[in-house]
Each structure stands twice: as C-alpha cells, then as structure tokens.
UniProtKB/TrEMBL annotation:
Descriptive protein name: Nuclear transport factor 2 family protein
Record InterPro entries: DUF4440, NTF2-like_dom_sf, Steroid_delta5-4_isomerase
Source organism: Micromonospora coerulea
Domain of life: Bacteria
Limits of the DUF4440 domain: 10-110
Length: 121
C-alpha cells in the first residue's frame, strides 16, 4: 500500500519528470514555489527563474527516473521526500544522484519548495 505522503510526492514528481523529459524548463519551474531553494549540480538558486535557467542548460534528451526511498510528513501541508534519481543522457553515462525535496501545499496544489541533489559515488 502506498502512503499518503508517497502519493503526494508522486503527484508532484511525476509532473517534474514529465517536464524534464520533455525539455520544458518553464513547466519544470512552474511546480516550484516562488521562494524555492534549488540545488542541482551547479550553484544554488532561489525561485522558479533559477530552476528554469538550470533546466534550460541541460541537454535535449535528458530524462529522469526516480524511486522514492523515504517520506516524512513534517506538517499538514509539508512533506519531505528522499529519492534516488537516474538522469539519463543520449551521449554519456547515467548520472545517479540522491535527491531531497520538500513539497508544500498552497491552496489545493503541492509545489516543490526545496530541492537538493547529492552525488554520493
């Protein structure tokens, strides 16, 4: 059985994955809060503009496959997720990372308010 927290994360992360796979940086950015802290494999940024710029700089053909490893409900409207993500490219090896996200409910929808990638290998 899937936990409510995992389902919340899947709803948000499936949107993220779809936009990443389609190389649609503006759509990726639209699922982040206005004050989101974003740390990819480059220097961090705050807000959707930095997210869009980061994903715009990624190569066409980049795809993401994620597995949720842990979830925690931090408050009624806040969920933490810890995931493994494989970023696949058309012309180089897969980049495997760990991803921590915090999603926050605003109105009826959930958005990413914190995103931090770590390469452990």
């Amino acid at each position: 059985m899937t936990s409510p927290e995992a389902q919340i994360l899947r709803t948000v992360l499936d949107q993220w994955k779809s936009a990443v796979d389609a190389h649609d940086p503006e759509r990726v950015a639209s699922i982040f809060t206005d004050d989101a802290i974003f740390q990819g494999l480059h220097p961090y940024s705050v807000g959707p503009k930095g997210v869009a710029e980061y994903y715009d700089s990624q190569p066409i053909g980049l795809t993401a496959a994620y597995t949720i490893q842990e979830t925690r409900r931090l408050a009624d409207d806040v969920v933490l997720g810890y995931l493994s993500v494989d970023f696949t490219f058309t012309d180089r090896p897969v980049v495997a990372v760990q991803l921590s996200v915090i999603v926050r409910r605003i109105g009826d929808d959930w958005f990413i308010s914190h995103y931090q990638v770590s390469r452990l290998a």
